[in-house]
């Protein structure tokens, strides 16, 4: 199998392979499409999968799109898909975002493990720790745009949260930071659990 690194070449080969019913070539291009491009260009992969009516590849790409913002993003490949196919991707991301959004709550519907991290200090609003309030306020916009984003624990979000911990004696005493990697792992697991069964609508595909 050739290792093609230009997605436009994959698109052209698929055009020819499908036209001339070259099944093996189609299969090889499908593997390349998801293996080489889905991680870094999932939106483009989704559009090409829709263009060539590749159902499984469209599903994989749509799931990968949950890591990146797509609403309002323009790419030339948009011309190759229908408005319905674009709407379905946005609808899928919206439904997934709503499911993930429900995680960021401290009420009874929230994950049971929140109690491991929410300190007894009420240094922030509504009786919660200030560091937790800060984390939620920064994480929610990311979660709503990219429900499976890897950005929750990157420096831009982590450092302001750590500043809040440093400002409160009670939070510092409870060693919030020592379990930070555990919080990351559990949060990712919870997002996966709540969103995994949401499916992209491909009826009539």
From TrEMBL:
Top-rank lineage group of the source organism: Eukaryota
Protein name as annotated: Uncharacterized protein
């Amino acid at each position: 199998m050739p290792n093609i690194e230009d997605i436009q070449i994959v698109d052209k080969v698929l055009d020819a392979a499908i036209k001339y019913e070259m099944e093996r070539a189609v299969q090889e291009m499908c593997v390349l499409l998801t293996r080489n491009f889905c991680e870094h260009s999932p939106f483009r992969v989704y559009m090409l999968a829709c263009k060539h009516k590749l159902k499984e590849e469209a599903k994989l790409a749509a799931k990968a799109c949950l890591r990146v913002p797509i609403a309002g993003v323009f790419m030339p490949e948009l011309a190759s898909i229908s408005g319905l196919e674009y709407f379905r991707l946005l609808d899928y991301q919206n439904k997934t975002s709503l499911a993930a959004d429900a995680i960021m709550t401290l009420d009874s519907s929230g994950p049971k493990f929140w109690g491991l991290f929410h300190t007894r200090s009420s240094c922030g609003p509504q009786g919660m720790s200030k560091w937790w309030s800060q984390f939620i306020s920064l994480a929610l916009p990311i979660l709503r745009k990219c429900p499976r984003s890897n950005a929750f624990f990157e420096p831009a979000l982590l450092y302001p949260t750590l500043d809040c911990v440093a400002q409160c004696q009670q939070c510092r005493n409870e060693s919030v930071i020592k379990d930070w990697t555990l919080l990351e792992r559990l949060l990712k697991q919870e997002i996966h659990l709540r969103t995994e069964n949401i499916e992209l609508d491909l009826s009539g595909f």
